[in-house]
Design goal:
The protein has 821 residues and is an alpha+beta fold. The chain contains 31 helices and 32 strands. Helix 22 packs parallel to helix 24.
Length: 821
């Protein structure tokens, strides 16, 4: 009896719990196809307990038509798979009300057959939960719409620094990859992205992020401005988020305040300019009464700012003459501006010169103001006299400058013509001055120039003119000389005067002159011709060994003219397609097979025909044209070799000569990479030949550059080895593959023991450094025999082949290739 009472009480409690939770239980007998509902299940479907006979079809008919098929399919799948199921769906109650239910069921099987015999489960009314979820979704949609419409970037992180809400402005503000921005993303991961771009300041990005998070972890409001790499300025504001008196995270906004900052900076700059301008500035009303004045205006006029306010501008300036005032008023009325030089008087009565600029400013409202700007030009006018002197004299040495020299020469020529005098012009350039200047500094160089100027002036007569043109160039004008012997005598005195050492700051300095002399009337009848011819003669003096003098001769002019003509044509050669490449094969000493070709530049013009590289290469080097020409050679050589490979030639190297100028170009690595990429030539088939002198100009930089080229796979060779100055300490550090013995050592290797020793020593040195050796200029069998017996690796020269045009070279190489098969 007690047991029965306990079960009844337990059942009553269970039913009460189901009513409270709005959960009904059900069971479906699959054998009899009957359905049992608990009392609460009846009530959920809108019926009194026992009022109807439930069935599976009745259950399906109660389900909303849009959900019915889905529920049936889930039940069928549960039976077929013998698996539990759960599903949310809508029902339409007898009253017409739509409610949301959650069904959960389990399948029971026959112990013997294993077939489903019944299912049972629960049904719960989840309408209120669904309505709450809908409200939350609507609120989330509202929030997302608000976030999307905000001009600022916004992010919301929870107390664990996980991203919960954000807008596109947040992604744009931090320039975040979209795929890394998702709900739950870690604040540290997202902040690390701009930190690595350096936008959080200098230092380790991870440390900067940790510092930033430590500040945020205090959950205190703070703000910070930061300047982006684009130049835009952002205001970052962080506010803690509290829910029910507990920290729930923080909200961050990112506002672009660039325009505001620029406006503030412009206003601040305007204030600074007004306050710190060296010129006087005052602002007056339309009638010319002073409203504001800057400190410089008070300094110039002597009046304090408070004394000026309300006074007419012209009364303070004491403008001289009624006509000037009328002129100003008329110009302001007609043009809105007047500027000019006027006399003024300070408060203490002293007169001064000033430059006055008055502008009438018309505002949109119709009101107007006047802006007065004045500069005290008293000192400037005093300086004009000094400037006039400096315009005709060298400021360092005090000697007449080019302008003064030309004026004196213009005066001297008519006198020489009238009195039939001879006139000489000595153009002097100091030897080795640049080395002294670069090594010991400009101060020492300047003192050297002043001493030279003094010695030159002491060498000539008072009637002669010693001038400095600039740098280390001086000119001496000798009017009324007896002729060339007298000019030579003066030149000899100059050389003698400068032969003595010059002491500057404890340094014993030596310099010598290269002097070019032109004579009137023999070498020209006008200033320009005499100056030009003296300059030409000076360059020939330098070419003759320096510390000497040369008289101008017509042949010099012809040589200079030819050189200029050749330079002009050289500048157009690439565009006209006048360059071509010839190729001289290189051969293995052991097998006699071609190992490579050296690309050699050839230039042929319609007017002059073939022009020797000996003539045009030095000009290209001096003018810098060799950079563009060298780039063309590099591209063309790579293109030609790739074309040969595609024509069936077995892979061999193509060697391209480089100049020191090319190595000095910052984009040289890119030029090589571009030539290889455009042609498709494998990097290991390109060999770059560099002279000793080129790499030894800046050996450390050369090591860096050659190392980069080596990493690209390019082969490197030192060309003309033995003709320049090499440091073996550096040579072993250069990442090179080949040494090329210069042809000057190979030419007499059969007869000259010194050349033979140099060649054989070079081979031994190269092999000790792990390098291959190529001998250039091999023309005889004896030369080949000597080089072969002493371990030379490769040979190049007329004995095997002259330089050949592209088609002939390909035919030659293919023929040698066929012979080897």
């Amino acid at each position: 009896m007690v047991q029965k009472s306990f079960k009844e009480r337990h059942l009553a409690l269970l039913q009460e719990a189901q009513r409270i939770a709005r959960i009904g239980s059900w069971e479906r007998d699959l054998r009899s196809n009957t359905l049992w509902w608990s009392d609460e299940c009846y009530r959920l479907f809108g019926h009194e307990p026992g009022a109807i006979q439930p069935s599976y079809n009745l259950f399906l008919q109660t389900i909303h038509p849009e959900d019915r098929a889905m529920v049936h399919e889930i039940n069928a799948a549960s039976l077929a798979r013998h698996e539990p199921h759960q599903v949310d769906f809508r029902v339409i109650l007898p009253s017409g009300e739509v409610r949301y239910f959650h069904n959960q069921g389990q399948v029971f099987l026959d112990e013997h057959s294993g077939k489903p015999i019944r299912t049972s489960g629960t049904t719960q009314d989840i309408t209120e939960r669904k309505q709450t979820e809908a409200r939350f979704r609507r609120q989330a949609a509202y929030l997302e719409a608000i976030l999307a419409s905000l001009p600022q970037g916004v992010s919301v992180f929870d107390e664990e620094f996980r991203l919960r809400y954000w807008n596109q402005g947040f992604v744009d503000a931090l320039k975040l990859p979209p795929e890394l921005v998702f709900e739950g993303a870690a604040h540290g991961d997202l902040t690390l992205i701009p930190a690595r771009r350096g936008e959080l300041g200098p230092g380790d990005p991870v440390t900067l992020v940790q510092q930033r998070q430590a500040q945020i972890a205090r959950f205190e409001p703070h703000r910070r401005e930061r300047r982006r790499a684009s130049g835009r300025t952002q205001l970052l504001e962080v506010h803690p988020l509290h829910l029910e008196n507990s920290v729930a995270g923080f909200i961050t906004t990112y506002t672009d305040i660039t325009d505001r900052k620029q406006t503030e900076e412009r206003l601040l700059l305007a204030d600074k300019v007004f306050a710190n301008s060296p010129v006087g500035i005052l602002i007056a009303d339309e009638a010319g009464n002073i409203l504001s004045a800057n400190p410089a205006f008070a300094t110039i006029t002597g009046y304090l700012a408070e004394e000026m306010l309300g006074y007419p501008c012209d009364s303070l300036l004491h403008l001289c003459g009624h006509d000037k005032q009328l002129e100003i008023d008329q110009a302001l009325a007609e043009h809105g501006r007047w500027a000019g030089e006027v006399p003024g008087q300070r408060k203490n009565g002293l007169n001064y010169a000033m430059w006055l600029d008055i502008t009438r400013i018309q505002e949109a409202s119709g009101a107007g103001h006047q802006l007065w700007i004045l500069s005290d030009i008293t000192e400037r006018k005093r300086a004009e006299a000094r400037i006039n002197h400096l315009a005709h004299h060298d400021p360092l040495t005090g000697l007449p400058n080019r302008l003064s020299l030309l004026a004196r020469l213009e005066q001297a020529l008519p006198e020489a013509r009238r009195y039939q005098w001879n006139l000489a012009l000595c153009f002097i350039d100091l030897d080795r001055f640049k080395v002294i200047n670069d090594t010991l500094g400009h101060q020492v160089g300047d003192q050297l120039l002043m001493e030279v100027a003094g010695r030159l002036a002491a060498t000539v007569r008072e009637s002669d003119t010693v001038a400095r043109l600039g740098g280390d160039e001086f000119v001496i004008l000798l009017p009324d000389v007896g002729g060339a012997p007298d000019a030579a005598l003066v030149a000899g005195k100059i050389i003698e005067a400068l032969a003595q050492p010059i002491w500057v700051e404890g340094h014993e300095l030596h310099t010598s002159p290269s002097i070019g002399i032109s004579l009137y009337p023999a070498d020209g009848a006008d200033v320009e011709t005499i100056m030009r011819n003296a300059d030409t003669a000076m360059y020939h003096a330098k070419a003759a060994g320096r510390n000497t003098y040369q008289f101008y001769a017509e042949e010099m002019n012809r040589t200079a003219t030819e050189r200029l003509t050749l330079e002009r044509k050289l500048r157009q050669a690439v565009a006209k397609g006048e360059f071509s490449l010839h190729f001289q094969p290189q051969f293995s000493v052991r097998g006699g097979q071609p190992t490579g070709v050296e690309a050699l530049l050839r230039w042929t013009t319609e007017e002059d025909g073939p022009i020797s590289p000996v003539r045009f290469i030095p000009i290209a080097e001096e003018t810098g044209l060799v950079v563009g020409i060298g780039a063309w050679v590099l591209r063309e050589a790579c293109r030609q070799m790739q074309a040969w490979l595609e024509a069936g030639l077995a892979p061999i190297r193509v060697a391209v000569n480089l100049s020191a100028r090319q190595l000095q170009q910052r984009d040289f690595i890119e030029t090589v990479a571009s030539a290889l990429a455009d042609s498709g030539l494998p990097a290991e088939l390109l060999e770059l030949e560099i002279t000793e002198s080129a790499v030894m100009e800046q050996p450390r930089e050369a090591i860096r550059l050659l190392t980069e080229l080596r990493r690209m796979g390019v082969t490197l060779a030192i060309d003309d080895f033995g003709t320049g100055y090499s440091s073996l300490a550096y040579l072993k550090l250069f990442p090179i593959d080949h040494l090329k013995i210069d042809r000057s050592f190979v030419a007499d290797i059969e007869h000259d023991l010194n050349d033979r020793a140099i060649a054989f020593g070079t081979i031994a040195l190269a092999h000790s450094l792990g390098l291959n050796v190529i001998a250039e200029g091999v023309e005889t069998e004896d030369q080949l025999e000597l080089l072969s017996c002493n371990g030379c690796d490769e040979i190049q020269g007329y004995l095997f082949s002259r330089p050949l045009a592209s088609a002939a070279a390909l035919e030659f190489l293919l023929d040698r290739q066929r012979q080897a098969l």
